[in-house]
User: Fold these one by one.
Assistant:
Number 1:
Amino acid sequence: MRRTCLFLALTLGLANAAWAAKPAPSAPKTQTVKTLDGKFMFTLPAGYTVNPLPPADPKSDAAGAKGMMYMNEKERRVVVTTELPIPKGGHAADNDDEFLTGATAGFIKQQATALPDFKKTAEKRMTLRKLGVEQIDSTATMGGGATMTTTFVAGSGQSMSVVQVISRASDPTGHAAMVKRIVAGQ
């Protein structure tokens, strides 16, 4: 679980950098996003540019991680998707209570340590197309501003996935619409 926490810290750091990143000149109309061999997927609406996340140090606990950062400059919203091998050769069933409980607890602990004003506002478990997914809603200051974040954690086989939606705190309606879109698999 320690390695999972370190990976999630890496994910957060990359998401923080997204606020300062400059997007590509044009964004495609829609983009289908898939993790865990398509078991967790959704479609981003028009306006999101995509950039691959930099590779993790091969000697780090996040070795093997791959991910993408989708940014909508107009809405000031970032969606970060990451997938990596479960640490220590671990394995998760598609709806694995033990994995989700441990990964979620580690994530929340890491966030509380990394962000002085981190506040978990909600947490719930759901099943999306037979895949167990933990949703953690939170607030914190990132990139110099107040943000709201919804994080989805899932695991399947030897891989885990973290999808984060990060929005300005002043746009709860837009944030909720993106979260709803992801949960619906649209």
Number 2:
Amino acid sequence: MPISHQRLALGFSWPHALLALVVFAMEVVIATQLPHVSWIRAYLGDVLVVILIYAAARSVLRIHDHVLLLAVFVFACCIEFAQYFRLAELLGFVRGDVMYTVIGNTFSWGDIVCYAIGCIAMALVVSGKNALVPA
């Protein structure tokens, strides 16, 4: 069925839920054990966060993988542009607030490149898996 005619459905996927948990654990390790290795936190963390969002969403949504990856990329870019406009501060959050940390406070084109790399990497994995598994 063409992507444009596919309907959104709910259904639980253990493999995607497990992937989300593993990537979340990796993000926690990066944030808590490797804060002094700035390139890992800054770049690898951004690549992994879109994979985490994809896997978490895909664990409960039955939607075409590439459509979901595009939505995840757009969502990540929206958060990044919210940082450009200092949305967290405009909403009254201060450094140390959970939402200040979630929204972030520093815009970077490099972050957007990392989000793209993460989404493209996941798309390649999904395409490779689909090529190996007959429909």
Number 3:
Amino acid sequence: MAGFLEVSIYDAGVSKTLMKEDPSPTYDYIIVGGGTSGAVLASRLSEDPAVSVLVLEKGQVVDTWITRIPLLFANPTSKNFVSVRWMSAPQTHADNRTLPMVRGEVLGGGGSRINGALYTRGTPYDYNRWEELGNVGWGYNDLEPYFVKSENTLTHPVADKKLTP
């Protein structure tokens, strides 16, 4: 069919060993894009052992100690910097110039990695204040299990819920 790229299962990164075991694999979910949200979605869906998930990602797998430190990994002069440079369409308000655009391509979220994305929970006071304003279920005690789950921690110290601004 015109306009569609045909991709074999080998192009998608499925190992030949797996193909010998099941030459026609099927999946319950196929996620296109292994960026931050695609990886999270795949992780959550695959918590059910009865569910099979395939993630298709154009970028490479990069998992070194430096890639886990956002501000270090975001250095565009680093040999480990996983980005591609695209040229924009001619920009009307820039004298029809084409401009370079840097885009991260890596499993787990190139944009998150090259932009130095950092995460913090916020203070318990802020969440408890939301709940005081009528947002039931948005207090710190309600949300903390989800924070811990998203952080993939095995242990986490109990936060002091009595913090004030």
Number 4:
Amino acid sequence: MGLEIITTITGGAVGAVGPVALAPVVLGAIGFTSTGIAAGSYAASMMSAAAVTNGGGVAAGSLVAVLQSAGAAGLSPTFAMVLAITGGTIGTCVGRAVGCLSSIFQRRREKKKEEDMEMVISGIAIMALIMWLKK
């Protein structure tokens, strides 16, 4: 299996699993916890801004409401699926790009080695000719 295929598959797998696995950790870290929005957190700032924008309350279905729901109850199956598909797609594209670039650099290194070997052989041939002419 070629490097490009391996990096493409790996990128897709990491991209699909990573966001779903890390989402609860990230949500908790920014303040969307299972017990509500943590005081003084980034989530509290988002909630405050949403409340000011909406005249004192957070609108149902807004980003803050969806993130708080995910922080409190975990990811819904639909949201987890969307996150996995999006992450997998992005990961596959990044993996493919990395594989292609690696292949390009590998071919350049191989070509450079061939050119260096040709220079060594040419140098040896020239030295042999000079030594032969000195006889």
